[in-house]
Design brief:
Layout: H1 7-25, E1 28-36, E2 39-47, H2 48-51, H3 53-71, H4 74-94, H5 101-113, E3 127-128, H6 131-152, H7 178-186
Antiparallel strand pairs: 1-2, 1-3
Helix pairs in contact: 1-3, 1-6, 3-4, 4-6
Length: 193
C-alpha cells in the first residue's frame, strides 16, 4: 500500500482513537460501595476524568490533531505528528493506574461528598474496571499514528489553493476600459478598489 493511500485511514484512525480515549475517560475507572450501620449501601463510581481531568483534555487534543492534519501542509503535519506523540505519551504517564494513589484519592474525595459517608471505614473495597486500559490503549495507538504522520506526511495530498485566504490570491490587473470594468464585476471583483 502506498503512503498516499494511508492518508485517509491515518486521519480517521487518529480521530477515532481520540474519541475512544475521551469516551473511556468519561467511564467509571473504579467502583466501591459505601456501607454504614443504619444506612443502605451506596454504590460509588469514579471516572477517569474525576481521577485526572487532564486525561480527557489530552484526548481532545488528539482529536484536534487529526483535524489539523487535514488542513496543514507537509511541514506543519510533521510538527502536528510530533506533538501528537508527545501529548499521547503524556496522557499515558498521567493516567492514574488502578490501585494507585490517584484513584484512591478520587474515590475518597467522591465518598466524602456522598451523604452515605460516615468515615473512612464506610468505604468498601475498591475494584477497577477495564476503562483505564482502553484509554491507555487508545493513547498508545495515538503515539503510533503520530509516528505514521511524521513518516508519511510529505507524500500526502494537501488542500488546493481555493481554500487559501482571499488576500492570499494574486491581484488581477486593474481594469482600464469600460469593458474591463464589467468583466471585473462579472468575475466578482470590485473594480473601484
Amino acid at each position: 500500500m502506498s503512503p498516499r493511500r494511508l492518508y485517509g485511514p491515518v486521519v480517521l484512525a487518529t480521530l477515532a482513537v481520540g474519541g475512544l480515549a475521551f469516551f473511556a475517560a468519561s467511564r467509571a475507572w473504579a467502583t466501591t460501595t459505601l456501607s454504614s450501620d443504619g444506612l443502605p449501601p451506596t454504590d460509588l463510581q469514579v471516572t477517569g476524568t474525576d481521577a485526572e481531568p487532564l486525561v480527557s483534555a489530552l484526548a481532545l487534543v488528539v482529536v484536534t490533531a487529526a483535524l489539523a492534519v487535514l488542513a496543514a501542509g507537509p511541514r506543519l503535519r510533521r510538527v502536528v505528528g510530533v506533538l501528537l506523540i508527545l501529548v499521547a505519551g503524556l496522557a499515558i504517564v498521567v493516567a492514574p493506574r488502578p490501585g494507585s494513589g490517584g484513584i484512591d484519592r478520587a474515590v475518597s474525595s467522591a465518598a466524602e461528598e456522598s451523604p452515605a459517608f460516615t468515615g473512612p471505614e464506610s468505604i468498601g473495597a475498591i475494584s477497577s474496571t477495564p476503562w483505564y486500559f482502553v484509554a491507555v490503549l487508545a493513547f498508545v495507538l495515538a503515539v503510533l499514528l503520530g509516528a505514521a504522520i511524521v513518516r508519511w506526511a510529505p507524500s500526502w495530498p494537501t488542500m488546493s489553493s481555493r481554500y487559501d485566504a482571499p488576500g492570499a490570491a494574486p491581484r488581477a490587473a486593474e481594469p482600464t476600459s469600460g469593458t474591463d470594468l464589467w468583466k471585473a464585476m462579472d468575475e466578482g471583483r470590485d473594480p473601484t478598489e
